[in-house]
Amino acid sequence: MSGVRITQTGQDIPPAHPHDRSGGWPWLLTWGRSRLAVWSKAWQQTWRQTVLSRPVVLVAGCFTVGVLLARWEILNARWGCIILLIALVMTVAAQRAGSAAGKMVALLGWCMAGGAVWYWARTAPAADDIRHDAPIEGRWIWVRLRILETHEVLGENEPLRSWQTGPHTTALARAEAVLHDGNWQARSGIIRVSFGQRVQDLAVGDRLEIFGELTPLLPPGNPGEDAAGFSDYARGIAARLHVRGTGANQRLLERASWYGVMAQLARMQAYLERQLEQRLPADVRGVARALLLGEFRQVEPRRLWRYQHTGVIHLLAISGQHLVILCGFLLWVARLWGWTGRRLAWWLIALVWWYALLTGARPATVRAAVMVTTWCLALRWARPVEAINSLALAWLVIGIWNPRDWFDLGCQLSFLSSLVLYAVAPTLDVWASWLHRDPLARLERPGLRTIVTDLIISWLRMSLAIGTVIWLVLAPCLAARVHVLAFSSIWLTPVLVPVVSVALVSGMVLLMAPLLPGLDMLAAFVVTWTLRVTEAILTLAEDLPLAYLYTPGPAAWWLAGFYGLVLAWLVLPGWLPCWRGVWSTVMAWGFLGWLASFISDPAPSLRLAFLDVGHGCCVVAECPDGSVWLYDAGSLQGPEVAERIIAPYLWSRGHRKLDAIILSHGDLDHYNGLPRLAEQFRVGTVYVNPSFWEKGEPTTQLVRATLERYRIPVEVLDSSVNALTLTAAPARQGAVERRAATDAAVDGRAHSHQRAADFVVTLAVLHPPKVGPSGPENARSLVLLVCYRNRQILLTGDLEEPGLSQVLSRLPRPVDILWAPH
Fold it and tell me: Model's pTM, two decimal places?
């Protein structure tokens, strides 16, 4: 075309070369205007298609924005009322002018303001909330309440816990009144009731008067704690009531009514749990309860960690996948009897909601129930259904019921996975079929073996493609919230989904054994061996290299940008075909976040964090030379203090390695978090006092075996060590020194005064000596004097007499900060 000349009105017009830049800036302006026009037209088309085909997405998005603004305290009640007033004025004006755009903007304004107001209404504590009666030190009080949920908790045989707990009962209850000065005063709020033993005659719907210790549920006291939002505080529970035994401390006021829906569901769940307990062996009973009834409190902790580490906990948790498998199985059975899906629509709706309520109405099951309901209604009335609209409707239903559920990690992962599945799966299916097509396959008449082989290969191919995309989308969220990247879930999910599906269907048959006599033995056999096969595969996968990886999460600003791009790509119509541009932008954004992860603190300094671990001790020291070390790592709460408090704080600070862990003495509440920290971080050296191994207790031997397994050296510290310097890796230390020199030059200070030694933290061991003193282990606590820039910090552990007098006599001068001893 470059040699063609166009003739118009008797004149020859030479064609313009596409790369002709002789016009200079006018050409650049013209190109910019053309690009802007293209993007503007694309956005207008996207907006028009969104309004026409996905209106629920816009409503859900604006409602979510309002909730977020209220949660982040950007919008207060006054501004919410102002937005509502503006939306009202715009609605009236648009109605009079007949403007469709004005009506749409007014509707979105109503949705945003409504989300903010609804969040305040649902989360603000009432004036008579029972949390106002719960002081930090606790209060023994009579409480009148109604039981909402009951759970049976297994006894724990955890050697690293200071005391063992036997089987006991916990419950959620709605407070009604408290006894003050002989008078019952009305109260509101949800409380967690913990009994010291198993309570057999407790049922949902019962009204009780209970005497116990009422304590508040406080917000997380440490950075990074409860990032996943799984705690009772994140769920909005007001307080906790501890009951030491029953009998005189418990009075039954009223039994649950026979017509109560929740009471009947709880009785049915208890009956089904008894069915499983009678027909299944003990090694699979807890997993079967979690798989079929959503009760995780009966699963052994180590087995539950295996599902979490390998990233397949979604196979065990009650989710939309369970409902899809159940509905698919019922439709297949109905087709054998000649029934169509349209005829079964109302039965399927009733079934999925019954199952969702029976298993606790968790956000994932409610999402699936709403989507199955919309699908069945569309099937019943022969109407088309938009999957993204159904997903947005489920999001709205959960937010209206309880907006706190949106911030639960399980809810977010469920919706993200479903969004990727509905938006990307059809495209991936077409690509996979095109890449693996065989032109000669149609000329052959395949046998049964070929058909089965092709089905298995196509299933694995499609599952791996979809699983990989879902994993790539979920990985940043998992890294930020739970700090685990389970690479094994990519290939484990397609392998285990058929096995778990067989276990689920067989389990349903087992639960209906009274209605299907003769099938209970066969169903129990299938459930038992499928769950055992699953356990064997997970045990093998957990020990493979790079099965899972602990890591700090990306920054919040990076997550916002990443999921903004991904959600726009998946939700807005017309963007999905632009996958090249979207993924190139995502890769550039990921590279930017990777570069930002290397940016350290602007100035070198010593940072000490005294973590709130309850009864115990943990001090995190971040030194200016880049080294990070701990002083003690334990709590009476148990070894989970490592993964619940200590590790999240270290990850929030961006640390992957601990240069040293210093244990003050051999009491369990000062070191029981060490084994799990050794699993999650690279530990340089562990330092102990001279008498740490003398007791020879099973717990210290467990710690020794853990250190040997991870090849962590152990050294003994005593008062003969006058100066201990813990340094980081040379590369990190050199980077810190260069940054310190640069900061000194900027501040106008002389380089000669900014030697590397000025930024080194020195530890002096003041106690104990190599032998003694006599007395309890506390008297031989490892006492450290931390010296930094003429500042002194004294860490004393649980020091007591006669060691206390020995330390006081050795102090060179008053200290600036004192960690008070036991």
Answer: 0.83
